[in-house]
From TrEMBL, chain A:
Keywords: Glycosyltransferase, Membrane, Transferase, Transmembrane, Transmembrane helix. The keyword Transcription does not apply. The chain crosses the membrane at residues 33-53. GO terms for cellular component: mannan polymerase complex. This is Alpha-1,6-mannosyltransferase subunit. Pfam families: Glyco_transf_34. GO terms for molecular function: alpha-1,6-mannosyltransferase activity. Residues 1-21 are annotated as: Disordered. GO terms for biological process: protein N-linked glycosylation. Belongs to the glycosyltransferase 34 family.
TrEMBL record, chain B:
The keyword Transmembrane helix applies. It comes from Penicillium cinerascens. Belongs to the glycosyltransferase 34 family. The keyword Transmembrane applies. This is Alpha-1,6-mannosyltransferase subunit. One of its GO terms (molecular function) is glycosyltransferase activity. The chain crosses the membrane at residues 121-143.
Length: 319, 453
């Protein structure tokens, strides 16, 4: 007999080879099972997602919008003086679609108690945040200040990323002139929640921009702590701010110091501006620190610049 | 001979006739053993024997050309290819037929393989059992340490070596307390794959009076956060604590049920009479909320209250921005200067103060019922048994804190007693059986002796 050719193919499937044939119908079953399982799982996932989404109440995310917080003291200043400040803010807010929040110091008397009245700015900003939870920025501006360049929006002036990063004061003493604590040398815009200026010897809380969020709540609550208010800081909340900035890196890390004239230029006659902190034509804001001490309820220094602002406005409208 | 070899395949790929053909052994398909009945009458016994002996390989060994695995497979593959393409119905028929043939033969190679398989199966089972005995605990441990088990998300920080004997002589009892307390936490952490950080609270100049006395808690926690970057929750435990229940994991005890184990409305138990929610009109909804934002993910600190207020002998902190802020503002020189003579319990009082005066803190602080992580022994917070405060054996409370035992009580005796109790409650089934048998034997003997009298 000859075995010319080797056997070609076994007619009986191999135990191993069967596996590729047998599940032909099973494979379909498996496929459908897998599909159903996938569908069920994804529905469950979506449901749980929706459930958890709807069950928690989160603070609405602040997306856009600027609120200008101005704290007015009706007891110490005349209505004519206050109306000028209000007019200046309202014009600016109208131009850029911002919101104004005019607070009255007397509203917060219970909150700050026996501490100096200037502490009222802290609960006032907190109040503005509570009333405008969807706004992103809160711009606190002293009532003894005028916006002299109203065409300038806050965004193009400071809040824009590249703009802000180019003007942040890096690695400078937090409290001038020689605090051993210095600002961070690698501050980025995304870390900034508070924009602030210095005058010649302190951080100046007369004009600052605070971003809505957890940091803002933390910063304001810490600042307003009764033990700071009762400490008899010589300059009340200003020294409180100096203290917080130097002792609490979680605050400093979210703070950007900018040159004084960007946010807080002092009028020519006032004392204590930082070097190059005095108002020059075209600056965004002019501050009149001396007006705070005014006894008469009016401030001629502001008056002069108010007229200038009016004239400028008028010529703009006419043009 | 009747048929020297199996028929050639059809051009389409099927077979003209099934392999039933009684023929020589060389037509034996792989994996099929020719039973004696199917042997050709001429009885080519050598081939049959050879085929049988080759069953293991399942292929006639005389076909030298096909002895290699690949060539065999190549043959098979090339012979089969058309059938896949052609979709010839005949092919499937053949296949079925072949299978039927298999069954008809009954005792094929499968009989042997089945027997082999069974013994292999038992061998496998046996090996599995051995493996289970040897490696199961390792596997469980590995699992608990893995991201799936989540053990590394927890760090137990145990304060030890308090003052380090600088202020007072450290005697044998103090050393024993320390050794035992550390051993206790080590056992627990090891069992669940948690990290244990034994913090040395040696008295240091920078924490001495007038200069942040005893304020190292915050610094120690911050250090631990740096050291264990994967960890999420940090459990602070004072030295005079005892973990009673090793079998309870933190996950099952608290963290898988954060929303129903934790309350944020302090009015539920408020020994300090803290005003809650805050009434200030200038605060936002979150600041004035009774239950914070009701999202368990925003809980960053879990603590308990005892009869006098907050207790930081056993508490949790979660790694978060909120926690960074708390640790940063917890100690402040201006506050400290005014309060260090009043804040007797240092950071505990300071935290109570911050909780009351700074609204941002509240929504992230959750309270646990005291006995869930901080049961007191009788003697702390009153002598008579108070089920809100004191350890309850029947409920198997998890942690006992001998709070204040250094003031007029005996720390070592308390720790020792709770250690014994924990061992007794958690002894194995066998020991329990033995004990109950011994107990009944003893009572029987007792009864006997009474009768004898």
């Amino acid at each position: 007999m000859h075995f010319a050719l080797p056997p070609r193919r076994s007619p009986h499937p191999l135990p191993g080879a069967r596996s590729s044939r047998l599940p032909l119908h099973r494979r379909k079953q498996l496929k459908t099972i897998a599909l159903i399982a996938f569908a069920v799982l994804s529905i469950l996932y979506l449901l749980s997602h929706f459930y958890s989404w709807s069950s928690t109440i989160k603070a609405p995310a602040a997306t856009a919008g600027v609120v200008i917080v101005t704290l007015l003291d009706h007891e110490r200043f005349s209505e004519s003086y206050i109306s000028k400040v209000v007019a200046n803010r309202e014009d600016y807010a109208k131009r850029h679609g911002y919101t104004n929040f005019f607070a009255s110091v007397s509203d917060y008397e219970e909150a700050f108690g026996d501490s100096p009245r200037s502490w009222a700015k802290v609960p006032a900003v907190r109040h503005a945040m509570a009333l405008n939870p969807t706004s992103k920025y809160f711009f606190h501006l002293s009532p003894h200040a005028l916006i002299m360049n109203p065409a300038q929006s806050l965004k193009s002036h400071l809040l824009d990323r590249s703009r802000l990063e180019s003007v942040i004061l890096k690695d400078v003493p937090v409290v001038p002139p020689d605090s051993i604590i210095r600002t961070f040398s690698h501050q980025k815009e995304k870390d900034v929640d508070l924009i602030l200026t210095q005058d010649v010897e302190d951080l100046n809380p007369g004009s600052f921009i605070l971003k809505n969020g957890d940091f803002a709540r933390y910063f304001l609550d810490l600042w307003f702590d009764p033990l700071f208010r009762n400490y008899n800081f010589a300059k009340a909340e200003t020294h409180g701010l100096d203290h917080i900035m130097q002792w609490h890196p979680t605050v400093l890390a979210h703070t950007a110091l900018v040159p004084q004239r960007y946010l807080n230029a002092f009028s020519k006659d006032s004392t204590g501006p930082s070097p190059d902190g005095s108002y020059k034509d075209g600056d965004f804001i002019i501050r009149f620190p001396a007006c705070e001490e005014s006894e008469t309820g009016d401030c001629p220094e502001l008056e002069a610049y108010y007229k200038l602002w009016q004239k400028k406005n008028k010529s703009e409208r006419d043009a | 001979m009747s048929l020297s070899r199996s028929p050639s395949p059809h051009p389409g790929g099927g077979w003209s006739s099934p392999g039933l053909t009684p023929g020589s052994g060389n037509s034996t398909p792989r994996g099929y053993s020719p039973s004696p009945a199917s042997l050709a009458p001429s009885g080519i016994s050598w081939a049959a024997a050879k085929a049988k002996s080759d069953e293991v390989r399942g292929y006639p060994s005389f076909s030298t050309r096909n002895s290699g695995f690949f060539s065999r497979q190549k043959h098979r593959i090339s012979a089969r290819l058309p059938s896949f393409r052609g979709q010839q119905p005949g092919y499937v028929d053949k296949d079925h037929h072949g299978r039927a043939h298999h069954r008809a033969h009954g005792r094929g190679p499968f009989g042997i393989q089945l027997r082999r398989g069974r013994s292999r199966f038992f061998l496998g089972l046996f090996l599995l059992w051995i493996g289970y005995l040897c490696f199961w605990s390792t596997i469980v441990h590995l699992y608990r340490r893995s991201p799936l088990g989540g053990g590394r998300k927890f760090v137990i920080i145990l304060s030890s070596n308090v003052e380090g004997g600088v202020m007072e002589w450290k005697g044998a009892r103090e050393w024993a307390i320390e050794r035992n307390s550390i051993w206790n936490k080590k056992q627990y952490a090891k069992k669940w794959g948690y990290e244990l950080e034994v913090a040395n609270m040696l008295a240091k100049k920078r924490y001495s009076h007038e200069w942040r006395e005893n304020w190292e808690k915050g610094d120690v926690i911050r250090e631990a956060m740096r050291k264990y970057p994967q960890a999420e929750w940090f459990w602070w435990l004072d030295l005079h604590t005892w973990i009673m229940e090793y079998d309870t994991s933190l996950q099952s005890h608290i963290f898988n049920h954060l929303d129903d184990r934790v309350y944020r409305d302090i009015n539920e138990y408020n020994p300090l009479n803290i005003t809650h929610p805050l009434p200030e009109f200038y605060l936002d909804d979150l600041g004035r909320a009774l239950e914070g934002d009701e999202d368990p993910d925003s809980l960053n600190m879990l603590l308990t209250q005892d009869c006098t207020g907050f207790n930081l002998g056993s508490f949790f902190l979660r790694r978060s921005v909120w926690t960074d802020r708390l640790l940063d503002s917890w100690w402040d020189p201006v506050m400290y200067e005014q309060m260090h003579m009043i804040w007797e319990h240092k950071e505990q009082d300071a935290f109570e103060y911050i909780y009351q005066s700074q609204p941002w803190v509240r929504s992230s602080v959750g309270f646990l019922p005291q006995r869930s992580i901080n049961s007191f022994p009788p003697g702390a917070c009153g002598v008579e048994n108070n089920p809100r405060v004191h350890y309850q054996e029947k409920d198997r409370d998890m942690v006992v804190n001998m709070a204040g035992c250094m003031f007029g009580r005996d720390c070592w005796t308390e720790i020792h007693d709770f250690r014994e109790l924990s061992d007794k409650l958690n002894r194995g089934l066998w020991a329990q059986l033995l004990d109950s048998w011994r107990g009944s034997y003893k009572s029987a003997a007792h009864a006997d002796s009474e009768v004898g009298q």
